[in-house]
UniProtKB/TrEMBL annotation:
Name of the protein: Putative exported protease
All copies of domain AB hydrolase-1, residue ranges: 84-275
Database matches in Gene3D superfamilies: alpha/beta hydrolase
GO biological process, one term: proteolysis
Organism whose genome encodes this protein: Patulibacter medicamentivorans
Length: 483
């Protein structure tokens, strides 16, 4: 996820906290937004902030309410303004307000037209950023990365600790804990549409933002003008199949990293077997010394750090350097670069994914079988994949599965562009293909490259997305953006 400078975050938080909305009955719980400037030296000029109160439980619209933080960059060309374009950077847990403030969705050379023609809207989903937040305690922070010790006793202990951490979150967060799933977030987005006074919205969602857009399109197909789902997540994917597809994709991304290193003399591991280096680091008894966290980093934690690095090829030189340092090739072994902070579980990520998806793990035997399958397709990176984190993390997590009615075929949406990367270690290309097949009339754009999402790695993808959102003209069938 993209992060803001601390000064920008503080200023945004203060501005959002001061923003108000008019309370009135109806769909949104407020039918007018009051905007105030919240721009700082670190944010996009012209940034405005507001907030909206919506029902905590949409089944009880007259009950308690929660607050959504909203940011806006008004269209520069108001005479040719198309309408609102809502954006989401991913997660679950990413702040759309911060991403909008940082200019993530408007690279000037390729996507500047979005800034000219749309009111860009960032909505922090409930539980995120400036919206009403989930509150958890130290029990969750102690969980760290998912286990690879899958003995019956160890897995039972993890499941017990996971359940206790979830109960602590529920105690601290109250009823919000049971109302932060994606189906509820989609209803919140329609309340925002209503409050904006828009008949239809356009949408640009990355990674989890694609799943949130998918849910919105399934529920409100006629309220979508144009939609981009980049780094696509296919809700209909069986959990175990998704696990193996993602592990396979992560293994391919690691192979691409190794090939880059072999061909690049400036790589700190040039001329070495990169897979052997990683295997050595992740199997050190007792872990690798780490001055950043004050204790040795485990093999699973090193795999977690490597997973982050594989998603952004532009940082691969740094990834190679920190692996070399962890391996003792630049002085005393120190994994501080690859594991920069104490791994922690994001409470919203855990709660939303567990409400949205099946764990697929009922016992230690299930976990051992699945991890064996992961190891077979990703022999160097098997100790951590995001989907493994989801599946193990939902084992024992005390949240009920929510509405899954959006997992079927989606029809009635006028224009949808699905984007998938050939070598995306987090959202594999088969997910984009599957989602595109499920959305009637959608078009698939493939980025033939490495990295997570197309927008973050390809100017060609950026241009295609901007052109589509402005004109609603889909790219030709079989369109591919080359790396």
């Amino acid at each position: 996820m993209m992060t803001s400078p601390l000064s920008a975050r503080s200023a945004l938080a203060a501005a959002i906290a001061g923003a108000t909305c008019l309370a009135a009955p109806g769909l949104a719980g407020a039918d007018e937004l009051r905007w105030r400037s919240c721009a700082t030296a670190e944010t996009a000029p012209g940034l405005q902030c507001s907030s909206l109160r919506v029902p905590l439980d949409w089944a009880r619209p007259g009950g308690p309410r929660v607050r959504l933080a909203i940011a806006r960059l008004p269209a520069r060309d108001q005479r040719r303004r198309i309408g609102p374009l809502l954006v989401n950077p991913g997660g679950p847990g990413g702040s759309a307000v911060e991403a909008l403030a940082e200019g993530l969705f408007t690279p000037r050379a390729t996507m500047g037209a979005l800034r000219e023609r749309f009111d860009l809207i960032g909505v922090d989903p409930r539980g995120v950023g400036g919206s009403t937040r989930l509150r958890c305690g130290p029990a969750l922070r102690r969980l760290g990365v998912p286990p690879v010790d899958l003995s019956d006793a160890a897995f039972a202990a993890f499941r017990k600790a996971n359940a206790a951490a979830g109960r602590e979150c529920r105690t601290r967060s109250g009823r919000l804990f049971d109302h932060v799933d994606s189906a509820t977030a989609a209803r919140d987005l329609d309340a925002v549409r209503h409050a904006l006074g828009a008949r239809r919205i356009s949408w640009l969602g990355l990674s989890y933002g694609s799943l949130l857009g998918e849910d919105y399109a399934a529920r409100y197909p006629r309220r979508v003008r144009a939609m981009v789902l980049d780094g696509a997540v296919d809700r209909a994917r069986p959990t175990e199949r998704a696990l193996i597809e993602e592990a396979t994709a992560q293994g391919r991304a690691f192979a691409a990293f190794g090939a880059w290193c072999a061909a690049t003399s400036g790589c700190a591991l040039h001329g070495q077997d990169v897979g052997a280096v990683v295997d050595r680091l992740t199997s050190v008894p007792g872990g690798v010394p780490n001055t950043a966290i004050g204790r040795p980093a485990t093999g699973a934690e090193i795999s977690y750090g490597l997973n982050e690095g594989l998603q952004m090829p532009e940082v691969w030189p740094l990834v190679a350097e920190v692996l070399a340092r962890a391996d003792g090739q630049r002085g005393p072994a120190d994994a501080a670069g690859i594991v920069r902070r104490e791994p922690a579980v994001d409470p919203l990520y855990r709660t939303v994914t567990c409400a949205d998806l099946d764990s697929g793990i009922a016992s230690a035997a299930d976990a051992r079988r699945l991890l064996g399958r992961v190891r077979a397709v990703a022999p160097h990176t098997w100790r951590y994949t995001e989907w493994w984190d989801v599946m193990t993390g939902c084992s024992g997590w005390p949240v009920a599965r929510r509405d899954r009615s959006t997992a079927g075929r989606i029809s009635g949406v006028d224009r949808v562009l699905v984007v998938g990367n050939a070598t995306d270690p987090s959202t594999p290309l088969p997910w984009a293909r599957g989602l595109s097949r499920r959305i009637a009339g959608s078009r698939l754009l493939i980025f033939d490259g490495v990295g997570h999402t197309g927008l973050l790695h390809s100017r060609c993808v950026q241009r295609q997305q901007a052109r589509f959102l402005v004109t609603r003209a889909l790219p030709p069938r079989g369109a591919v953006c080359r790396a």
